[in-house]
């Protein structure tokens, strides 16, 4: 989207309130317009000044504060909002919003909002599991509000169990999913591969590459947000699993092929962004190989070409997307790959361009098909993923076969 959305974050009086500073900061850095409302209880855990500094907007706490201008009146703010998030949402605030109680600025604005709403419960395990709280959460669902489930772990009250507020990155992920109004991949099954493969030499060493998996995980997230049923086949990465996506972890190129190939016929779209090893050791030593004087020779053999195999067996109407990481002759090599693998698209990028390549949060890609070529320029990997999926979905809709 060309303009970043307006996000209202309501903070109630839970110990996890301090974590919202990270969320506000992250959203602001990405260009979102963030407004914060706080209950009086929330001010005991984090000061309005901190959140005002991070958001760049006045933090609203008191419905009777005469210093408010019409632009920050709760009705005006409600009309401005694209999404309203309450995090942490205590049992008390959930009970209020479930039953239409508006006795402070946060609940008054929430009740006036007609935008999508996201509730993030965080409280003591027994409070969360209390039937009254569960009834109130269900009532919020029945009214069309989105609920981000609490996590499990050590709680501030000293117990361990469910009720922990999800981390800021998880809340941000849920916000983006809620904000994705156009579910242009609804009903579609999408297979995505991500990350590196590791080819064992001995029990200690392996051959791999620098892939972080970030591009593939961004694609899985964007496809989920667009309404797709997503399977993510991932090599080893340091990334957290994508919420709401079925993930199949693999290690080697062989394991990736064994996971991917049997799924082909049930998929509508297949996007292979993983950096799969082209070669693997012929034999794997049972014990650690100790160094000796002089050099060493390692005999390698080709791995299964997963992309080519999918291309050879592509059924009518399926969309196959490959990735091409190059250090030279980007377009020429990518066009050759497009043809030889029978792909519908190749997503090409150069390791030589600053802002592209392995490990970073941005990418610079060119979407190549037999009919057209589109250079996207420097974007976040998530925005890159959205642009790729939009292009692919247009092709999928126009396919009459």
Features:
Rossmann fold, 2 domains, 19 strands, 24% strand, elongated
What can you see in these coordinates?
- The strands form five sheets. The protein has an eight-stranded mixed β-sheet with strand order 12-11-8-13-16-17-18-19, with helices on both faces. It has a five-stranded parallel β-sheet with strand order 2-1-3-4-5, with helices on both faces.
- It is of the alpha/beta class.
- Helices cover 31% and strands 24% of the residues.
- The chain folds into two domains: 6-179, Rossmann fold; 189-288 and 298-398, CoaB-like (Rossmann fold, 3-Layer(aba) Sandwich).
- The longest helix is centred in the C-terminal third of the chain and has 18 residues, at 381-398.
- Helix 1 packs parallel to helix 2 (48-55) and helix 3 packs across helix 5.
- It contains 13 helices and 19 strands.
Number of strands: 19
Q: What separation lies between the terminal Cα atoms?
A: 31 Å
- Number of helical elements: 13
Shape: elongated
The CATH H-level homologous superfamily of the largest domain: CoaB-like
Domain module count: 2
Low-confidence stretches: none
Mean pLDDT, all residues: 92
Provide the helix percentage: 25-40%
Q: Mind telling me which CATH architecture of the largest domain this is? A: 3-Layer(aba) Sandwich
Describe the strand arrangement of the main beta sheet, using strand numbers.
12-11-8-13-16-17-18-19
Proportion of residues in extended strands: 15-25%
Overall CATH class of the largest domain: Alpha Beta
Question: CATH topology of the largest domain, anyone?
Answer: Rossmann fold
SS-based class: alpha/beta
Q: Please compute the radius of gyration using only Cα atoms.
A: 25 Å
Major sheet attributes: 8 strands, mixed
